[in-house]
Amino acid sequence: MSLRRLARVGIAVAASFAALRSTDARACMPAPPPNHFVRVADEAALITYDEATKTEHFVRRASFETDTTDFGFVVPVPSRPTLSEADPSVFQRLEELTRPPIVYSHRISGVDPTPLLLMTFAMRSAVVSAPAPVTVLDQLTVAGYDAAILEATSPSALSEWLSSHGYASSPETAEWVAPYVEKKWLFVALRIAPKGAAPAPSAPRRVGSGLVDIAFRTEAPFYPYREPASARAGTAGTTRSLAVYYIGGERVKGTLGASATWAGATTFAKRLDADVSGAPTPTKGRVLTAFVDRASPRPGTDEVYFHRADTSADLVPPPMEIVIGDKVPVPIDVVLVVGGGLALVARTIRKRRDRGR
Fold it and tell me: What does the pLDDT look like over 265-307, one tens digit per residue?
């Protein structure tokens, strides 16, 4: 395959799954301290749900554009979770499964003689003791994060705990966590584990870490979609894209809250004939449903819940045709032989004409 053809294929492959790659999405409340910022540059999520045990596994992939190295985020969950490191290759496999198949067609375009010649929180430095209304149920290090599982009886107390343990906080933090505290949910606080002395602030750059599998029991599988008002307003006019892969016993649809319309569009739905490499649970025989949400500003007033879809039919994107303009390779020696033969024929005809005059 020529370099030109490889370049065309590379561009086509990139375009075919660009819709499932997130470019600016946040599932957690951003609250950068003065003179710093943290923005989610790339995000996708995998949710697997076992209907028999009512267990959800939530794996989020994200990279962050930031000018600080000390930051984290918080994920609300309805029951006590277990945390483990997830295999980052699972998202590559999911992208391969859900991208449009590529069909190549060839068209001759000429003759070529040349055949002979690839919610985030910024962190503060202060660390002090926690207020009493917050209970630390567990602490561990997983996938490059220092993690804490928290129980809180007061939104303001949880906001103070986050602030006193290095997470930048504000009055909006308490407002954001209030619905979860009221429902007696728990919170998984994840902070990038420091490695040696913290370097001085630098120019903006992209930072990533490992993937954490958060497993918990829930009656209704969901994606943590809620955002504070300032985060929703701040994204007006920007481009946001969120990819969610859901694997369960049947094809599903998503709703904002119990029944409101969610902007996520279904891009793929099919029963899997083999396990997905790197998935936290067996997936053979389960249904993979993929969604893309490009809403901006995002209506993050509630979680996105998943329910049985109105149809069980497969949804597979149509093939993407790649037209390759082929030039027919003609060896130079053949060109010389044919050219010489034509010249000889022309000379013979000319001589016969001269004799007939």
Answer: 999 999 999 999 999 999 999 999 999 998 888 888 999 999 9
As a three-state string, the secondary structure of 15-69 is HHHHHHCCCCCCCCCCCCCCCCCEEEEEEEEEEEEECCCCEEEEEEEEEEEECCC
Q: Are 242 and 293 in contact (CB under 8 A)?
A: yes
Give the DSSP letter string of 138-198: EEEEETTEEEEEEEES-HHHHHHHHHHTTB---HHHHHHHHHHHHTT-EEEEEEEPP-SSP
Phi-psi region of 109 (alpha: psi -120 to 50; beta: other; left: phi over 0): alpha
- pTM for this predicted structure: 0.74
Question: Which residues of the chain, if any, have pLDDT below 50?
Answer: 3-4, 6-27, 29-34, 110-118, 126
Tokens linked to 48: 């697997």
Q: DSSP label at 345?
A: H
Which residue type, as a one-letter code, is found at position 328? Answer: V
Give me the pLDDT at residue 34, please.
45
- CA 290, CA 98: separation in Å to the nearest integer? 7
Please give the pLDDT value at position 205: 53
